[in-house]
Design goal:
single chain, globular, transcription, Arc Repressor Mutant, subunit A, ArsR-like_HTH, mainly alpha, two-stranded antiparallel sheet
């Protein structure tokens, strides 16, 4: 498999603990951005490329393939869309995103 998988060595874990495999996958360039953007609904390759601004077509294609293999996204007639598992991971990431915004604001106050 081309994406980080539980049970196989990944960044930060030789044993491939599931949480480490997930964080390795989500930590790859644009992976979370793609999930975040697809949370609003299906998008075409071109729409994703426009959203990601500086991403090369090669990198976007690679990331899409990894997220498809991980079962977070799928191809539909409307483009790429989150799967039920992708929607679940987005729901888990959303509070973390809100927390990060609060954290960023707190850093400005220091």
């Amino acid at each position: 498999m081309a994406f980080p998988t539980p049970g196989s060595p990944v960044r930060g874990s030789r044993s491939g603990q599931p949480i480490m495999a997930l964080l390795d996958l989500l930590g790859r360039s644009w992976a979370m951005g793609i999930i975040w953007h697809l949370s609003a609904g299906p998008r075409t390759f071109r729409q994703l490329q426009d959203y990601c601004e500086t991403i090369s077509p090669t990198t976007l294609n690679k990331r899409l393939k990894e997220l498809i293999q991980a079962r977070f996204i799928e191809r539909t007639v409307d483009g790429y869309a989150l799967t039920p598992m992708g929607k679940e991971v987005f729901a888990l990431l959303s509070p973390l995103g809100r927390w990060a915004n609060n954290w960023a604001e707190g850093l400005k106050e220091v």
